[in-house]
Specification:
Strand content: 25-35%
CATH superfamily: P-loop containing nucleotide triphosphate hydrolases
Strand order of the largest sheet: 6-7-8-3-9-10
Radius of gyration: 18 Å
Order of helices and strands: EEEHEEHEHHHEHEHEEH
CATH architecture: 3-Layer(aba) Sandwich
CATH class: Alpha Beta
Number of strands: 10
Distance between the termini: 34 Å
Number of helices: 8
CATH topology: Rossmann fold
Length: 236
């Protein structure tokens, strides 16, 4: 469970203090699919970085499964990022001259896993429907396929939370809807999904939409459009 209480984030740019978050309260329960929306500069990427333990709040508390993240040392934070949270970004960040299989293996290599690593990576590729592309390099895959490899890489450590930061930003419309359908399927299987997007069409796949403006939450509501979006992407 994600629980954020009164979180602020202040950056210094020379003599100027930039208040990226101004006191955020947010709770995401296990198994939710939440879309966080907002214009550029609204604070959504800052909030994503804090949820993903890539940055720490200036003040307030962030509890992840009951642990106060600000009290953890760098080693504990790294373990959490490797085991509890999977990251998917707009840029696929794949190693160009490595196969899809090797790209998916990388988090397991960093985590020191030996036996069973390749089998786990193949299983993750099967989940995203790319087992038959395991030996292909990124240059031999479409943009949508590359993002599926990136999702498989995020899933290979079996995290409970998947954070997707504008995952459709570099894809065409058809590939984007295919990626969103995959996220829905992963959520239906019990995975917690937090999606950053500025596109209403893709937020429609979520079960809940949180809207940010100028570092504050200005909207938080359940949505009923997911079934419609899913059918639309399927051609229904």
């Amino acid at each position: 469970m994600i629980q954020i209480e009164g979180v602020t984030k202040v950056y210094r740019m020379g003599n100027v203090r930039v208040h990226a978050l101004k006191g955020i309260d947010l709770r995401v329960d296990d198994g939710e699919f939440v879309a966080i929306m907002g214009a550029s500069g609204s604070g959504k990427s800052t909030l994503m970085n804090i949820i993903g333990c890539l940055d720490l709040p200036t003040s307030g508390r962030y509890l992840l499964d009951g642990l106060d993240v600000r009290r953890l040392d760098d080693n504990r934070l790294a373990i959490i990022r490797n085991r509890k949270i999977g990251f998917v970004f707009q840029s696929f960040n794949l190693i160009p001259r490595s196969t899809a299989l090797h790209n998916v293996e990388m988090p397991l290599i960093y985590g020191g896993m030996g036996d069973g690593r390749r089998q786990r990576a193949m299983a993750a590729l099967r989940v995203v429907g790319l087992a038959d592309r395991a030996r292909h390099q990124p240059s031999e895959l479409s943009g949508g396929q590359q993002q599926r490899v990136a999702i498989a890489r995020a899933l290979v450590t079996e995290p409970t939370i998947l954070l997707a930061d504008e995952p459709t930003g570099n894809l065409d419309s058809e590939a984007s809807h295919e990626i969103m359908k995959l996220l829905v399927e992963l959520n239906d299987e019990g995975r917690t999904i937090v999606l950053i997007t500025h596109e209403e069409d893709y937020a429609a796949y979520a079960k809940r939409v949180v809207r940010l403006r100028d570092g504050l939450i200005v909207g938080d509501h359940l949505v009923e459009r997911r079934a419609h979006a899913h059918a639309e992407a399927s051609g229904g």
